[in-house]
UniProtKB/TrEMBL annotation:
Keywords: Cell membrane, Membrane, Transmembrane, Transmembrane helix. It is a multi-pass membrane protein. Pfam families: DUF2179, YitT_membrane. The chain crosses the membrane at residues 12-31, 64-81, 87-109, 116-138, 158-179. GO terms for cellular component: plasma membrane. InterPro entries: DUF2179 (IPR019264), N-reg_PII/ATP_PRibTrfase_C (IPR015867), UPF0750_membrane (IPR051461), YitT (IPR003740). This is DUF2179 domain-containing protein. PANTHER family: UPF0750 MEMBRANE PROTEIN YITT (PTHR33545:SF5), UPF0750 MEMBRANE PROTEIN YITT-RELATED (PTHR33545). Its main location: membrane. Residues 228-282 form the DUF2179 domain. It is found in: Cell membrane.
Amino acid sequence: MSKLKLRYESKRLVLVLIGAVLFALNIDSFVRSANLFPGGFAGVALLVQEVFGKFLGISVPYSVLAYSLNVVPIIIGFLYIGRKFTVYSIVMIVVSGFFTDLFSGITFLSLTSDTILCAVFGGIVNAVAISLCLFADSSSGGTDFIAIYVSERTGKSAWNYILAGNCVVLVAAGILFGWDKALYSIIFQYASTQTLNVVYKRYSKTTLLIVTDKHAEIYDVIRRLTNHGATVFEGTGEFSQQSHKMVYTVVSSDESGRLEREIRGVDPNAFINVLQSKEIVGKFFKRQND
């Protein structure tokens, strides 16, 4: 393995480990302090753990439930997403489960008893922890596997659909443990989902419309930086009555900022219109998760 590759893999591992510990700290601080139920399989694990403890008098470690629930998503990851991606995700699942049990019961982790603060800041911290894993080409497991699989197969952002699916967990939590906690958990999940959409943009798409006289050079930049194609249109500026080329391309949103800067370097006079793409139908190059 080359030094560059080793450095990259080490960076991935460090990001995953930090994300895992932060994820566990969030559960044992904000989440448990307010008895919230976060989204995904972590919420399911906490709900099942609470049911066993309250109704059956059985104490089940969080890690046991989290590991069991993630078996099927891990198989999906290996088959359809990527092997290294899934291996790093397993590291996240194992480490976060271990530290969640380890930190459980440590009183100083309870930063506040205000439920609304726990819901808002817990949701934000949850999204940051998940984002660290996603930046490392990994995930926090569970519904992340499903969201990424759906996003790559359909071209649609799946995080809002995951939020809708989490409502099933919240309904069960509301029936069993009171609707106030379930409603506060919705705030937690909404804060987490929206923060994730802002912080991590790989699975959202951006359309660039570039009016330029250097279309060939600009396409070379697009191809080199993103490996995406482009379509060139003939156009005439109505004000100046001068002919121009318009380059049309769609890229992942996390690529658009750097691409705009590079285009400005090639043609400082280029007119660039940046649009958020709701959905992509057809062939679109996707970077491999591994």
